[in-house]
Write a structure and sequence with these properties.
Four Helix Bundle (Hemerythrin (Met), subunit A); three-stranded antiparallel beta sheet; 2 domains; single chain; 232 residues; mainly alpha
């Protein structure tokens, strides 16, 4: 009986440890980093712009030490760049990173759409397409850019994987930094809107292989375009 009691106690301890792991709450610094990734992905922070701990700490209602931790996390992801004696700046990504970023995009976006998703997930993809159409009608290029980001984020969200969503958040932030140079062409985002519609329509019709094929071709062309723009 003593052995059984010990085994039960050990199992209870393991279960408690697992519960604590499952219930882990992101730190404040991680939440600040998440907010800054969002601002990068939405185009609010542009390549080369300087970020200050004091300003962000005041805007977000956190300490400067917390912002410093968030900066370190984003610098490790190469979204921010620390320059000694100068400060912290939004990164200007190198052309050599383009193929690596698109390799990740092909892996997670195409597999996500080929697996389909819930009606709610598919509706989110459609909502992003409609958002893009409204922005195009209003001649809102920045709005088009955000709608395009939301479209690709919604595709990955079809997989209902927090890990993939986290990876995609970083990828979207990196992509917006690349796209900043491309958007000197006022029609950059609107050129992709029709293809977003075709991909979404195939997804809604349950034509998952076709949706995946369309998305794969889309990403391949997008990579070629970015490589040309950035001189790779």
């Amino acid at each position: 009986m003593a052995g059984a009691d010990q085994d039960s106690s050990e199992h209870a301890g393991l279960d408690g440890a697992r519960a604590r792991m499952r219930l882990r709450v992101p730190s404040v610094a991680e939440r600040v980093a998440e907010e800054l990734r969002y601002q990068l992905a939405e185009g609010f922070l542009v390549p080369g712009s300087k970020l200050t701990e004091a300003t962000i700490a005041e805007d977000l209602g956190v300490s400067r030490n917390t912002v410093r931790e968030a900066f370190a996390e984003l610098a490790a992801e190469r979204l921010l760049l620390r320059q000694p004696n100068k400060g912290v700046f939004v990164a200007t990504l190198e052309a050599g990173d383009i193929h690596d970023v698109y390799t990740v995009r092909r892996a997670i976006e195409v597999s996500s759409i080929r697996a389909g998703g819930s009606p709610e997930g598919i509706a989110a993809v459609r909502a992003a397409v409609d958002e893009g159409k409204r922005a195009a009608a209003a001649d809102d290029n920045e709005g088009l850019g955000s709608a395009n980001q939301h479209f690709h984020g919604a595709i990955v969200a079809l997989a209902e994987s927090n890990r993939l969503n986290t990876i995609m958040a970083q990828i979207l932030a990196e992509m917006r930094l690349y796209f900043h140079k491309a958007t000197m062409n006022a029609h950059f985002y609107s050129d992709w809107l029709q293809e977003n519609e075709q991909i979404c329509s195939a997804l809604e019709a349950g034509q998952l292989e076709r949706a995946g094929d369309l998305l794969l071709a889309y990403l391949n062309r997008s990579e070629q375009q970015q490589a040309a723009i950035h001189g790779e």
